[in-house]
């Protein structure tokens, strides 16, 4: 663990770091994961079922400019939202305090999911050492 972020490597050279949101009963609510496999980078939100899929959920760090995520898959356990990663997004994650992915309820109410970025830089450094 690095602050709130954990390093997970299900296969050699295929690792990710992640932060998990839980409710007051310690049950899973959502997660944000950054992964690398060779030169490929991914940022994915794992969110609960029951939200509107027609809109691309915006992702922002510390209230900055939002970028649209894309729903890519929904299973019984929840939906995956792919968030485009570029150097600016990576810099904001490394220097930020909080990332927010905003979902829409069936009645179009905005539901922000906030992820604490404490430990992201150290976790990313560990990930970079593990996956080169």
The biggest beta sheet reads: 6 strands, antiparallel
Alpha-beta content class: alpha+beta
Can you tell me the CATH superfamily? Answer: Invasion associated locus B (IalB) protein
Query: What's the domain count?
Result: 1
> Which stretches are low in confidence, meaning pLDDT under 50 for 5 or more residues running?
none
Number of helices: 2
Helix content: 10-25%
Question: What's the CATH architecture name?
Answer: Sandwich
Strand proportion = over 45%
**Average pLDDT rating:** 92
Q: Looking at CATH, which topology would you report?
A: Immunoglobulin-like
Could you tell me the number of beta strands? 10
Shape: globular
Gap between N and C termini, in Å? 20 Å
Order of helices and strands: EEEEEEEEHEEH
State the strand order across the main sheet.
Answer: 1-2-3-4-8-7
CATH top level assignment: Mainly Beta
Q: What Rg do the Cα atoms give?
A: 14 Å
Description of the structure:
The chain has 132 residues and is an alpha+beta fold. It has one domain (6-130): Immunoglobulin-like, CATH 2.60.40.1880. The chain is built from two helices and ten strands, in the order ββββββββαββα. The protein is globular, with a radius of gyration of 14 Å. The two termini are 20 Å apart.
């Amino acid at each position: 663990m690095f602050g709130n972020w954990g390093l997970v490597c299900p296969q050699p050279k295929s690792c990710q770091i992640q932060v998990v949101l839980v409710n007051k009963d310690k049950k899973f609510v959502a997660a944000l994961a950054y992964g690398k496999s060779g030169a490929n980078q991914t940022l994915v939100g794992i969110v609960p079922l029951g939200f509107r899929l027609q809109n691309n959920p915006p992702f922002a760090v510390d209230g900055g400019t939002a970028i649209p995520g894309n729903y890519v898959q929904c299973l019984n356990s929840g939906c995956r939202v792919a968030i485009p990663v570029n150097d600016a997004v990576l810099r904001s994650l490394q220097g930020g305090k909080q990332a927010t992915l905003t979902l829409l309820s069936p009645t179009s109410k905005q539901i922000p999911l906030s992820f604490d970025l404490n430990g992201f830089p150290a976790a990313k450094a560990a990930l970079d050492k593990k996956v080169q």
